[in-house]
Amino acid sequence: MSIREDLANTSLVLTSAESKIVQALLDDYPMSGLGTATRLASRAGVSDPTVTRLMIKLGYSGFAEFQSKLLAEVEARLLSPLLMLEVKRPPPSGEVAPALAYFHSIADSLERTKTAVPSQSYVRAVQMLLECKGQVYLLGGRFSRHVASMLAAHLIQLRPGIRDLGALTPADFDLLIDMGKRDLLVVFDYRRYQSDVVDFAQQAHRHGVEILLFTDPSHSPIADIATLTMVATTDALSPFDTLTTAVAQVEAICAHALESRGQPARRRIEEIEAIRRANAVTLDIPETPDPAAASDSAAPNSAKPRSAKARKKSTP
């Protein structure tokens, strides 16, 4: 297992400051760990001794040993024959080459997103979403608001009090008057960061609202005030960033939430399904008919018994 995977999947209980260091390392791995401890501390917004304490907690004698092993890992990867084969692999040929190349780039971004944040962050995100005592508001930018709406649609099946803000309008800022410490604002903000989304989040924060942020490795300005930041790699072989990784991240959180909610979630979903059936909301697959009934209905008229009236009528 690589150092990056160790950082992302650690089972250690980390303090808030230690979590910031781990996130700083994952955001720009491995480069973030190749500078000085002071530079890493500055990047994470913590003190130098906190970096040292984290390294000891992770099993290293100090930052120097961590960096030495990181350098060895980088060197081994650069010299790996398998890596060189991958780098020198010819591009796909034919008319579908651009599409296949794009799929390869998305797969790479998904792989990196798996270790973009510590695995404990998914547990914390689910806790924030399900244990919020007030309203859960969801907000995003031009494109990311569609991902926010997907999460809202899932959350409605798990708990009440979900409000999808959709495309932010000036009138939506009036909602801030009723938002407070019991509420949660879930924000999706990827580069290029959207000014009205950032403004709304900052004002909500001043009202005491807790913020769960979904963003890219460059970090939206909202990261400075977010309680928890979930990072997804958005690089793709295209002029446009991909949100495939953001969708996968949302679905992973929903899967975890459903698992942790257990029977109460099942009962709520069953009740929602009953309402949908009563209102013909969805076109459900019909139940499989009884084979015996099907054979009876398929029998020719001559094979079916006739009523007495029909027999009398047919008598010459």
The pLDDT mean sits at 85
Which residue ranges are poorly predicted, with pLDDT under 50 across at least 5 consecutive positions?
A: 82-90, 294-300, 307-316
Proportion in helices: 40-55%
- The strand order across the widest sheet is 2-1-3-4-5
The rough form would be described as globular
Radius of gyration: 28 Å
Number of helices: 14
Order of helices and strands: HHHHHHHHEHEEHEEHHHH
Q: What's the N-to-C terminus distance?
A: 91 Å
| Beta-strand share of residues | 5-15%
Helix/strand structural class: alpha/beta
Plain-language structure description:
- The longest helix has 18 residues, at 244-261.
- Helices cover 52% and strands 7% of the residues.
- The protein contains 14 helices and five strands.
- A five-stranded parallel β-sheet has the order 2-1-3-4-5, sandwiched between helices.
- It has helices spanning 3-8, 16-27, 37-44, 48-57, 63-79, 81-87, 97-113, 120-131, 144-156, 195-206, 244-261, 263-278, 291-298, 308-314; strands at 136-140, 162-164, 184-188, 210-215, 228-231.
